[in-house]
Specification:
The chain is of the alpha+beta class. The chain has three helices and seven strands. It has one domain: Hotdog Thioesterase (Thiol Ester Dehydrase, Chain A, Roll). Helices cover about 20% and strands about 40% of the residues. Strands 1, 2, 3, 4, 5, 6 and 7 form a seven-stranded mixed sheet that branches. A hairpin with a 4-residue loop joins strand 3 and strand 4. The mean pLDDT is about 95. This is Thioesterase family protein. Pfam families: 4HBT_2. InterPro entries: HotDog_dom_sf.
Length: about 150
Amino acid sequence: MIQIYEKVLYAGWADMDFNGHMANRAFLDKSGDVRMMFFSENGLSGRNMAKMRIGPVIKSDKLEYFLEIGLMEEIKCTLILVGTSKDGSRFKICNEFKKMNGSLAARVTSVGGWLDLKSRKLIAPPDLVLKMMDKLHKTEDFEQLPSSIRKTP
């Protein structure tokens, strides 16, 4: 069984908004950090992506809030796979932010793909990326997504 990828983080000073709780941009930033931690720990570091001339690109993020997170609060952030296209060119992932007691504080669901950094077009990624993404825990409602590759006439 594949374990859910999880990191323990803190809500730092720069993460706070005027109301004294974690700001919406901080959830997006931490989601990206956890995503990149997973990639790096599974053979796809920033340096490796630069050599391969590929990078992940996010098309949309959906943010949902359930509980406030305060300054210097320790939180757990998970990363799970909600869907992929058969060729791996598109993915849908979810980060859940949980308080240390397990209560869900926020959820970020992101849809993205893989960008060829030279042509600036979406691509089907190399096998290394497909194998890496296959290591992520899949949701019960995992979905098959359409490819991001446009067919040329």
